[in-house]
Amino acid sequence: MIRWLALFVLMLTLPALAQRPITYEKDTLVVLIPLDMLFIAADGHILNIAERTIPLSETPIPSAGPIKAVLELNGGTSARLGIKPGDRVRYKSVS
Question: Is the dihedral angle over the CA atoms 1, 83, 13, 45 positive or is it negative?
Fold first, then answer.
C-alpha cells in the first residue's frame, strides 16, 4: 500500500478560501520532480490539470475557477491513468 501511495499521491492541498488560486512550483521545497496538479471544485469534479509542471519554476499555474482542493501527482500520472477535466474525485475533506 505504501508503495502505491508513493507512486501516485504526493499531496492534497485544501485552500482556506474557495477562489481561483495561482500556484508556483518555486514553492516546492522537497519534491524536485515534475508534478501533475489537479484543481478540484467543491463538488469534486476536476476543473483543470496542469501536467508535468517544472520544479522550482516561477511560471504561474492558475486554476480554471474556484476550487476546494489541489491534488498533486507524479508528473505523467494523470495521462497514464486517463484522468481528465470533468472527472470526479472522491475524498473525505479534512476540517
Answer: negative
What is the full per-residue pLDDT of the chain (95 aa) written as tens digits? 334 444 555 566 666 555 555 565 555 555 678 889 999 998 999 999 999 998 888 888 889 998 888 888 889 999 998 999 999 988 776 44
SS in 3 state form for 40-53?
Answer: ECCCCEEEEEEEEE
pTM for the whole thing?
Answer: 0.75
CATH number of 2-81: 2.60.120.1140
The residue behind cell 522550482 is: 56
Break the chain into its structural domains and give their ranges. 2-81
